[in-house]
Specification:
single chain, alpha/beta, 5 strands, about 35% helix, about 15% strand, binds ligand FNR
């Protein structure tokens, strides 16, 4: 059975390190696990007034999350917290009230920075929101990735073998976590 993981990336930047990290993790996915990036940059800001006739972009986003077995968040830290585009996607996916697209889905949070902090603040602020959706969030390994500016070549390829092996272990651990915690249908 193939499990699909919706990957949400907290940066909209063309050369985003977080997108490169998400792809490097996806490249190490074990058999039976498939990562699919779900775009968030085009989602209109959440406004409850629009719920009577929700924007098609919201509807499509919610359906993509609902169709996935699990969610992986890969994000930078902006001003010690979650980037606005990602928080907006969470808010969009959280409604209509009581029908959050994220509900109960196993999740993993990966944060990164070019500096030394590894996005720790964003990582844990994000986890606070996921609690509300009753998402079982992988606890270990903790993925605060620091100094990521030196990890990729000009083509976006990961140049560190130790990191590639670590991403492989992480992907396997997440796959096992999904099997343990995914809602039984
Ligand atoms: C940052 N950056 C940053 N880094 C950090 O470690 N802690 C922080 O609080 C912030 N705050 C912050 C705010 C804003 C508005 C920007 C644009 C950047 C630096 C950030 O981690 C770095 O630019 C990353 O490379 C962004 O991720 P992508 O775009 O490479 O995926």
């Amino acid at each position: 059975m193939t499990r699909t993981v919706a990957t949400l990336i907290g940066s909209l930047r063309g050369q985003s390190f977080n997108r490169k990290i998400a792809r490097a993790i996806a490249a190490e996915a074990p058999e039976g696990l498939k990562f699919e990036e779900v775009e968030i940059g085009h989602l209109p800001f959440y406004n409850e007034d629009l719920e009577s006739d929700p924007p098609q972009a919201w509807v499509d986003f919610r359906n993509k999350i609902k169709a996935a077995d699990a969610v992986m968040f890969v994000t930078p830290e902006y001003n010690r917290s979650v980037p606005a585009a990602l928080k907006n996607a969470i808010d969009v996916g959280s409604r209509p009230y009581g029908h959050a697209a994220f509900t109960g889905k196993p999740a993993a949070v990966v944060s990164s920075s070019q500096g030394p902090l590894g996005g720790f603040g964003a990582n844990h602020h994000l986890r606070q929101s996921l609690t509300f959706f009753d998402m079982p969030v992988l606890q270990q390994p903790e993925m605060y990735l620091s100094g990521v500016g030196a990890w990729f070549d000009a083509d976006g390829k990961l140049v560190r073998d130790d990191t590639r092996a670590f991403f492989g272990k992480f992907a396997q651990t997440f796959a096992d976590w999904i099997e343990r915690t995914a809602p039984r249908t």
